[in-house]
Design brief:
The chain is α+β, with helices and mostly antiparallel strands and 200 residues long. Helix content is 16%, strand content 29%.
Length: 200
């Protein structure tokens, strides 16, 4: 091969290798893409929303290590998080944190009480035809264990969450939902007004 072309090829291979390492670093430590597959977070998040999830928000984890090696913050009440589903860690779920370790959570007729105080939840959605006949409109009281979190979907009557399968261990949390970078409703429906929207 011509030495000039060998040099060009070497430069391209080196640039590609650097790009791949950088992309892997970003995905491992900084942000990860996530697509909304279900209606459990409507109206906050819609099916077809594509999110960036901040993995840096709650600490830096090395690959194959569950616990953060560098602590950058702790999950807080109201955070929308992506986590490994406790019953099948191969699946990622997205919900809102309702209870921190030590909190006492109770539902009475779809009103959430945390430590005896009713929550103001402007993001909450209730449906006239709830999943399972609304059997989880009343729940608890239950105390959130140490190093675990109680989470719920905003679309309360169409969300399988901590009311059904329990708590989320701290080490299962992948990151905090940050921003919508793409939103597609199917067909030609691109939801331009949602692109760039931060998640609260």
């Amino acid at each position: 091969m011509n030495p000039r072309w060998q040099k060009v090829l070497k430069e391209y291979v080196e640039a590609l290798a650097v790009a791949l390492v950088l992309a892997l670093f970003i995905r491992t430590f900084v942000v990860q893409a996530f697509k909304i597959p279900s209606e459990s977070m409507v109206n906050t998040l819609l099916v077809g929303d594509h999110l960036l999830v901040s993995k840096f928000a709650y600490g830096i984890k090395l690959p194959f290590v569950d616990k953060p090696v560098i602590d950058t913050g702790n999950p807080d009440r109201g955070d929308v998080i992506v986590f490994e589903y406790p019953k099948n860690r191969e699946l990622d779920y997205i919900k809102r944190i309702i209870g921190l370790p030590g909190d006492v959570i109770e539902l009475k007729n779809n009103v959430v009480y945390r430590n005896g105080q009713a929550l103001d939840e402007p993001y909450k959605r209730l449906d006239a035809t709830p999943m399972g006949g609304g059997i989880k409109a009343n729940y608890g009281p239950i105390t959130v264990p140490a190093d675990q979190y109680f989470v719920m979907g905003d679309n309360r009557d169409h969300s399988e969450d901590s009311r059904y399968w329990g708590f989320v261990p701290r080490e299962y949390i992948r990151g905090k939902a940050w921003v919508i970078y793409w939103s597609w409703g199917g067909g030609a429906e691109i939801r331009w007004d949602r692109i760039g929207k931060t998640i609260h």
